[in-house]
Amino acid sequence: MNYLICTIKSIFNWTLEIVFPQECLGCDKKGEIICLNCILKIKRAERETESNIIACFDYRESIIKKAIWNLKYHGRFAIGKILGELLYENLLEDISEIRMYTEGSPILVIPAPLFKTRQKERGYNQAEIIASSFCNSKKEIFELKNNIVVKQKNTEQQAKLTNKNKRLKNTQGAFKVINTEDVKGRTIIVIDDVTTTGGTILEIIKVLKKSGAKKVIGFAVAH
Length: 223
Fold this sequence. Notes:
Layout (H helix, E strand, L loop, with lengths): L2 H17 L16 H6 L11 E5 L4 H13 L2 H14 L1 H8 L7 E5 L4 H7 L3 H11 L5 E3 L4 E3 L12 H8 L3 E3 L9 E8 L4 H12 L4 E8 L1
Helix pairs in contact: 3-4, 4-7
């Protein structure tokens, strides 16, 4: 992560929120990014996801779409913190089931990586911000690692591809594991902001399993 760019963007956004107080993305209530009332109204994801991927919210919900857009393209890192917390709180039951496979070890949490040039341009990885907040919700049961999987191919953005087969083909061979010893025998959660066909997460799951991971599950904020 380009921490200098992140720091500059964080200071800039913090300054903006002092001069122009933040408003809820759902109802424009001042002083909150997403108010509790709007959080309670967000629809859970009901559309079927691929096997081994669990999505939290419906991406068609305008508040979720706004939240992810503002995090992804406008550097509003506080939104990523909220999304990470919501991901944890809404998937507690699934996390409890996953813990049965860990044999007392922490669950390894890996954010979906960006290609190096794209991350340099953006200055940060939104999945990493979400994953960090997710882990901070219960530090003792998670171990966050962002240096295990890298994206080795600069693929076309998944959102620009409308065909499922093209999306799946787009991510083939895009990721590799560089620290295999950290993966062997581990139970892992891969975190991303959005999953559609599941191409990105499924490809990461595949390379982690090939590297000896015991169990790998994908978590996404929205689908």
